[in-house]
């Protein structure tokens, strides 16, 4: 398998007039992508940036970001992803903590707090416009020679996990891993094998955030193989519907949280008649919703499971497996993919459990190494080796494609001067599966409301972590052992929703839009 930087270089040399990706129903050609990639490389060189320096990258799902990423990889650069879906103050704090030599971001993300953080550290910054890139005034020359960054052992892409095996952390995937285990294998459903004639195939729909493992995994393989793609800035049901109508693909992906939304939208079965299979992952899919979709549309949903820490998917229900097993394995995310081992262990003793018993899932991923990785996922493996994902053991809230730890939200709430104590639980949501709900005790004399606390949280957390439901109480309920009674909190929110069925907030779409749902990345 060729090295990743060579694959990107070859892709960038395609004929200038060849369509590469469609964005907002307008085609971007390979010549435009190459021009931006080369312009960014020239600006970085002119700034005097060390070849070993990591590039901090704030990618939005736009053609300019795709072109920038291909150009950075083609030059063998290590890339450190920063999320765009957070407040500008939080992004500035990320920059202060990481101290990058270079930042590449959309012009709208180069706000005053971000520029101040970059200036204070002597960083270089480049702003992406629609299909152009420019150095920011005063931030066009490297000034970090006094504290050079140690080079990585090999070029890598560093992303932020969503917490499958613990608290979110930065995780590096090497260029070699991407080339061998993502581009070099037929992982992306519908992408075809390397070297195949893909010119006449329907383009693939891309909507996962480019900064996630799912974004890397679903964006790079088709582009490097030469298949056309349709890129969405944010996922939406109308955009997905339009894609299916215009291109009539046999296979498409859909976030689990959006399966119910398709049903609710009442999309006619004739509009989806081309689809034979639908891929879904990253969050559990309610069995009732799963059955309702298949019964209405006659389209089989293929579930899958994986995580950043595994370097990609570790279990998948394929079209062939579905044809062989049918409804006998309904709800399964499939058996282990080639090179992966899975087992179920007792949460208390760690003893390996026999088939058919529920416990904690442990995985060995050949992409990462020989060690068993323990997850916080409750699962069962049946006698035929099919994995069934049951939920979380650590209280994590599964909002669309994101796993949110309640403690993360609680700790951020406690930073507000008016909050005495807080507890967050997940409550059922018709579209997203679960959403966070916060119960807050205010300090005497403070009158902070939901709007103020929401604004406070946006300065500390990603948009996906903002609670949808709020309650203000004099004291948090406790169990006889004086622990917070989380079932009681959840019941209170359920009772509140039952009493006010028409007053539920219409939020949460941002989580669906920004999730990393297909094909099974967490």
List its salient traits:
522 residues; five-stranded antiparallel β-sheet; 3 domains; Rossmann fold; GMP Synthetase, Chain A, domain 3; seven-stranded mixed β-sheet; 30% helix; alpha/beta
> How are the strands of the largest sheet arranged?
7-6-5-3-4-8-9
Query: In the CATH hierarchy, what is the architecture of the largest domain at level 2?
Result: 3-Layer(aba) Sandwich
Helix segment tally = 15
Computed CA radius of gyration, to the nearest angstrom:
23 Å
Shape: globular
- Any idea how many domains? 3
Poorly predicted segments: 163-167, 187-196, 504-522
- The first-level CATH class of the largest domain is given as Alpha Beta
Mean pLDDT: 86
> Can you summarize the main beta sheet?
7 strands, mixed
How far apart are the first and last residues' alpha carbons, in Å?
Answer: 27 Å
| CATH topology assignment of the largest domain | Rossmann fold
Q: Which class of secondary structure composition applies to the elements? A: alpha/beta
Q: What portion of the residues fall into strands of 2 or more residues?
A: 15-25%
Total number of strands:
25
**What helical percentage do the residues reach?**
25-40%
């Amino acid at each position: 398998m060729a090295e990743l930087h060579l694959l990107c270089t070859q892709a960038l040399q395609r004929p200038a007039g060849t369509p590469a990706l469609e964005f907002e129903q307008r085609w971007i050609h390979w010549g435009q992508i190459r021009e931006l990639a080369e312009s960014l490389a020239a600006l970085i060189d002119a700034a005097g940036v060390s070849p070993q320096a990591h590039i901090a990258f704030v990618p939005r799902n736009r053609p300019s970001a795709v072109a920038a990423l291909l150009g950075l990889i083609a030059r063998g650069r290590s890339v450190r992803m920063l999320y765009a879906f957070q407040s500008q103050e939080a992004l500035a704090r990320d920059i202060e903590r990481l101290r990058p030599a270079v930042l590449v971001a959309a012009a709208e993300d180069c706000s005053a707090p971000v520029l101040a953080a970059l200036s204070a550290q002597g960083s270089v910054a480049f702003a992406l416009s629609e299909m152009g890139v420019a150095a920011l005034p005063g931030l066009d020359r490297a000034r970090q020679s006094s504290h050079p960054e140690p080079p990585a052992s090999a070029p890598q892409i560093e992303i932020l996990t969503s917490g499958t095996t613990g608290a979110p952390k930065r995780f590096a995937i090497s260029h070699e891993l991407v080339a061998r285990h993502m581009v070099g294998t037929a992982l992306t459903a519908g992408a075809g094998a390397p070297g195949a004639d893909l010119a006449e195939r329907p383009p693939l729909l891309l909507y996962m955030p480019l900064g996630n493992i799912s974004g890397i995994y679903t964006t790079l393989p088709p582009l490097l193989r030469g298949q056309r793609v349709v890129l969405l800035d944010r996922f939406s049901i109308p955009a997905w519907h339009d894609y299916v109508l215009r291109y009539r693909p046999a296979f498409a992906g859909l976030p689990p949280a959006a399966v119910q939304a398709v049903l609710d939208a009442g999309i006619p079965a004739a509009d989806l008649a081309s689809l034979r299979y639908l891929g879904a992952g990253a969050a559990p899919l309610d069995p009732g919703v799963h059955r309702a979709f298949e019964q209405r549309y006659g389209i089989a949903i293929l579930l899958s499971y994986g995580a950043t820490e595994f370097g990609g998917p570790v279990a998948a229900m394929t079209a062939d497996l579905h044809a062989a097993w049918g409804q006998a394995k309904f709800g399964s995310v499939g058996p282990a993919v080639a090179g992966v081992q899975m087992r179920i262990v007792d949460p208390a003793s760690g003893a390996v459990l026999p088939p058919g018993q529920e416990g904690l899932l442990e995985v060995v991923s050949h992409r990462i190494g020989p060690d068993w990785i323990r997850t916080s996922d409750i699962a069962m493996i049946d006698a035929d080796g099919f994995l069934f994902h049951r939920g979380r053991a650590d209280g994590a809230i599964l909002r669309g494609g994101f796993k949110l730890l309640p403690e993360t939200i609680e700790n951020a709430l406690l930073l507000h001067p008016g909050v005495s104590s807080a507890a967050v639980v997940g409550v059922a949501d018709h579209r997203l599966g679960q959403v966070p709900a916060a119960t807050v005790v205010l300090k005497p004399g403070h009158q902070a409301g939901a709007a103020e606390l929401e604004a406070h949280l946006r300065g500390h957390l990603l948009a996906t972590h903002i609670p949808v439901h709020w309650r203000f109480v004099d004291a948090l309920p406790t169990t006889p052992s004086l622990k917070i009674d989380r079932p009681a909190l959840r019941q209170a929110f359920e009772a509140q929703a039952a009493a006010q069925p028409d007053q539920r907030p219409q939020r949460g779409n941002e989580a669906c839009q920004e999730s990393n749902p297909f094909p099974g990345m967490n």
